[in-house]
Task: inverse folding
């Protein structure tokens, strides 16, 4: 190891959480869109699907709802920590 270079050959990037809220909002939007598309698909094709396929789609949507709730909680945590919020100097 060379002097003055530190421990890492390629040091890790600093933890930049400033855009976490925006990323989480985008992820929530995408997940809601996927949820709605799956619901629409079920409405249109339920008669053509097996009970197992219907159950799988419903289970996946249940997980999507859990993810949305978790991401919303993360947004609250980020805002409380001051991340992703414009700060006035």
Result:
């Amino acid at each position: 190891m060379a002097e003055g270079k530190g421990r890492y050959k390629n040091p890790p990037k600093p933890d930049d959480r400033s855009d976490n809220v925006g990323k989480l909002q985008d992820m929530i939007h995408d997940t809601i869109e996927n949820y709605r598309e799956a619901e629409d698909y079920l409405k249109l094709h339920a008669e053509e699907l097996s009970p197992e396929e219907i159950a799988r789609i419903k289970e996946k949507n249940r997980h999507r709802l859990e993810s949305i709730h978790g991401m919303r909680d993360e947004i609250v945590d980020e805002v409380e920590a001051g991340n992703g919020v414009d700060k006035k100097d």
Observations:
- Residues 51-80 form the longest helix (30 residues).
- The CA atoms of residues 23 and 41 lie 27 Å apart.
- The radius of gyration is 21 Å.
